[in-house]
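Following up on my earlier thread - several people asked me to post the actual chain instead of describing it. Fair enough. Here it is, all 108 residues.
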Amino acid sequence: DVRLPASFLGSPEWISEETADSLALARTYGRGTLLATMTVNPNWPEITSQLRRGQTAADIPVVVARAFHSRLERALDLLRRKLGDLVYIIRVIEFQKRGFPHVHMILK
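Reply from S.P.:
Thanks for posting it. Predicted structure:
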């Protein structure tokens, strides 16, 4: 049996540790107060401006990932400004069948 260590991002051990840490945060500081989800829109200008003739957003995953990360950080900055100091943010980034990222976040 080969087991990847918790230091290997995405390994079962890593997932187990992240889950335990998230549950410990909720136990210590209380349940989150906001659940938010964000999904990539393949029609965002920063994506469509990089498309060559005949390409779709699925053909340029690096551009999609960078656009998603940039928009996610801007959304988090906006939430911090509107909500004030946050105790914690738990987020999980997943990939849809088309390969586009989306995030589920719990904020407190």
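The longest helix spans residues 61-83. That should answer part of your original question.
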